[in-house]
Write a structure and sequence with these properties.
two-stranded antiparallel ribbon; 2 strands; 58% helix
């Protein structure tokens, strides 16, 4: 049982190692400039010439790194938010501007940290609760019936299905970027209930467009109904479904952490992600 938290920790270390190597100053290619918040937090050294690159190079490098294709992307307007939280992408001639600098401050980092990591904490609690059930068929104990070959194949296919549908398409492509994007719209001037309920705010459960709130609440209620139905399944089918849930939620947690760290280091919000903030009332 103790090896699984260690495995998640190793995955996190590998992710951080890849991030660090990507921004290493010893690489033959100049590193991607970091955000102002990170630069001000690090000791200045002549061996790491991050501050020597101007803003034009910064914009060009980030466009090359994060653009999904060579064509201009459509204009994306971001509603709501305050100063320094512009997350827009626009077209000026042949040059497409990527997400603007988040102008990170200590208060914004702390608020976004609570928002994003609060969501990860909610997912982690769910994972911890479901893991013992998912692993039950492989435990050696009295009354545990081993899986048949058909059931084992169903176990593996369910994990793969949840990894792709829930982990990749649901979390990595949609929900995780939304959480990261919305978390960085929080700052010291945000309403107190936005800060206290930052994880729920980041999930789009309130202070969002009508469409976003309908989607968020529908998904939340739908998941609760599915969980209640899965609990009624007999052994080992409940265990098989729960194994897939563990894979999907783990993928989602890692994608939120990875997206948050990338935005924190680069100072750029997730590209082409609308935080779905409501229109400001005049």
């Amino acid at each position: 049982m103790h090896s699984y938290p260690t495995s998640f920790a190793l995955i996190g270390v590998a992710l951080l190692n890849n991030l660090v190597s990507g921004f290493s100053c010893t690489a033959p290619v100049p590193p991607l400039p970091t955000s102002a918040f990170i630069r001000n937090s690090l000791p200045r050294s002549s061996s790491c010439p991050t501050n020597s690159y101007n803003k034009n190079i910064f914009q060009q490098r980030t466009k090359d790194l994060f653009s999904s294709s060579g064509h201009n992307s459509p204009v994306m307007m971001v509603r709501g938010g305050g100063d320094g939280t512009a997350l827009s992408a626009s077209i000026a001639g042949d040059d497409a501007a990527v997400g603007q600098d988040l102008n990170l401050t200590t208060s914004k980092v702390l608020a976004s940290l609570w928002g994003a990591f609060g969501v990860v904490y909610i997912l982690a609690k769910a994972i911890k609760r479901v893991v013992p059930i998912a692993l039950e068929p492989f435990m050696k104990g009295e009354g545990v019936v081993p899986l048949t070959q058909f059931q084992l194949a169903a176990y593996i296919l369910t994990c793969l299905w949840f990894a792709y549908v829930e982990g990749y398409k649901g979390f990595q492509l949609k929900f995780s970027p939304l959480v990261v994007s919305r978390s960085f719209t929080l700052n010291s001037s945000s309403p107190i209930h936005h800060l206290l309920l930052a994880p729920l705010y980041s999930m789009g459960l309130f202070h969002a467009t009508k469409k976003r709130m309908i989607i968020s609440w529908s998904v939340s209620i739908g998941v609760a109904v599915i969980v209640a139905a899965v609990k009624r399944l007999p052994y080992p089918w409940r265990n098989i479904v729960d194994a897939g849930v563990v894979i999907g939620l783990s993928w989602g947690s890692i994608s939120i952490l990875g997206g948050y760290i990338i935005s924190l280091v680069t100072g750029i919000a997730p590209i082409d992600v609308d935080p779905a903030l409501p229109e400001k009332k005049e």
